[in-house]
Write a structure and sequence with these properties.
It is built from 15 helices and 17 strands. By secondary structure, the protein is of the alpha/beta class. Helix 5 runs parallel beside helix 6. It binds guanine and fe (iii) ion (FE).
């Protein structure tokens, strides 16, 4: 069939042919490709396989295979709140909407002391979950968010869970069961001045011990860490005591683990960091001194970083997850993606559910394009800021692969790469996209990006395993 990918910011690669996927150590890898074959019979012959020995898939008339999307920043626990943020901005959004919901997913005494922080107590009102199983609500939420992200073509996700070890471990169990490639982080937060009493670890040592408990559970599920891996997750500087940040930095270094956190998202947050960490040169310096800035670190947002901070992030090889939908929804600002890229920093896309209102990385591509134009406007109409469709898709695939340490293994159709793929059909019965037939293929991709959604996703594979079928 047709294979389309975005190997560079300016270049769509549109090819017709066939690929042979086979199992290597339990992972479906692209073993052979041939971009000259035009019939199934020719493909079987060239690859030396019999039709009955393979699971055969062919794209539709207006269909194509595309690398699976990589969501480098999503809070699985916040999924029930998508779209629910009112007029809040980051800091009041956290205390009003987010902490109560996360706390309600169980594992710790939930909702004993929310002080009415969340009127209506969203923690318990969704469905009557089993009272005999304290994780039944987490089970329902996490099952939904994994299924939903897969249905939108997200084959890899870097998840924040909650502070609860059992609920975080359940998220890992479910991602592994459904077959999504996932990095799972138990959220660390213990600062008594900024975290509510009902939702925080007691001490730095407890924060570390809980992080380790979850890491070890996850590594037991997948000892190679190729499909499922833990990720060290201090929520953000203001919610952690300095000692906790250092313990987690040491842990990540000692065990060579990925790290994820938030950085420089909101102006009020910057003031809070200055207030809580007066002896540090900058927000970035807080993480740097704690040993949290490594080449395996994903920093979400990175909107208001100064030049010295960019330089530190670049030299440390840390990555940025650009979350445009969230940045607009919470009024956080315009992330200068072009400047980050020009400074040699790897950038990817994150939905940041539920700061972001949608689990769709296709929507993040759209929002990245739109926000870049607003940024150009406030910078005197300079077109250099503009991100186009191809560059957005590159960030969503190759950019994601770089940011999760899977460059060359995810994001394309070259031999040796993992088969993490979405099959798109622009002409399905319920497609929100109308193709008239005269559009060139790059124009069809434009139409997909601006109006496509999960109704166009026909099948999704992770490591060669079919994990979703929307047929
Ligand atoms: N900063 C600290 N916690 C959060 C969170 O849950 N979402 C976002 N967008 N920013 C944060
Ligand atoms: Fe976030």
């Amino acid at each position: 069939g047709r294979f389309i990918s975005a190997p560079g910011p300016e270049s769509l690669l549109i090819r017709q042919g066939a690929v042979l996927v086979s199992s290597s150590n339990g992972h479906g890898v692209l073993e052979k490709t041939d971009w000259t074959l035009i019939t199934p019979a020719a493909a079987f012959k060239a690859f030396g396989v019999e039709e009955q020995d393979v699971d055969f898939h062919q794209t539709m008339n207006n269909g194509f295979f595309f690398p699976g999307f990589i969501d480098t920043h999503i809070h699985a626990s916040q999924y029930p709140n998508v779209g629910i943020f009112g007029k809040s901005t980051l800091l009041d959004w956290l205390t009003t909407y987010t902490f109560p919901l996360e706390a309600s997913l169980g594992g710790k005494e939930p909702l004993a002391d929310t002080n009415g922080a969340y009127e209506g107590n969203r923690g318990t009102e969704i469905v009557n979950y089993s009272t005999s199983n304290p994780l039944s609500k987490a089970d329902a939420v996490y099952t939904k968010v994994i299924r939903r992200t897969l249905s939108y073509g997200t084959t890899t996700a870097s998840y924040f869970a909650t502070i609860s070890v059992p609920a975080t471990n359940l998220l890992a169990d479910l991602a592994f069961k459904f077959g999504q490639r996932a990095y799972i982080g138990r959220v660390c937060m213990d600062h008594p001045d900024t975290c509510p009493t009902y939702y925080r670890d007691e001490t730095p040592d407890q924060s570390l011990a809980n992080a380790i408990a979850s890491i070890e559970h996850i590594q037991k599920l997948d000892s190679k860490g190729e499909l499922l891996a833990p990720i060290v997750t201090p929520r953000f500087a203001p919610s952690c005591q300095p000692e906790t940040l250092s313990l987690l930095g040491q842990l990540a270094t000692d065990r060579k683990l990925r790290v994820q956190t938030h950085i420089s998202e909101n102006i009020g947050e910057l003031a809070l960091v200055k207030h809580l960490f007066p002896q540090y040169e900058s927000y970035t310096d807080v993480y740097h001194q704690a040993g949290l800035l490594t080449s395996r670190t994903i920093l979400a947002h990175g909107i208001h970083l100064d030049d010295r901070e960019l330089e530190t992030i670049r030299t440390q090889g840390s990555k940025i997850s650009h979350c445009p939908a969230s940045n607009s929804a919470l009024g956080s600002g315009f992330c200068p993606v072009r400047k980050l890229l020009d400074n040699g920093i790897d950038v990817s896309l994150g939905t940041d559910v539920s700061g972001g209102y949608s689990v769709s990385i296709l929507d993040s591509v759209r929002q990245a394009c739109l926000v870049s134009r607003q940024l150009g406007f406030v910078n005197g109409g300079d077109k250099k800021w503009n991100i186009g469709v191809t560059e957005g898709l590159w960030l969503a695939t190759v950019g994601g692969a770089k940011c999760v340490g899977m460059e060359g293994r995810l994001g394309g159709f070259e031999p040796g790469m993992l088969f993490d793929v979405q099959e798109i059909d622009l002409s399905g019965e319920n497609s929100p996209v109308d193709i008239f037939g005269w559009e060139k293929w790059d124009e069809r991709i434009d139409k997909w990006v601006w109006n496509g959604d999960d109704r166009n996703v026909r099948n999704v594979w992770v490591g060669g395993r079919m994990v979703h079928s929307g047929k």
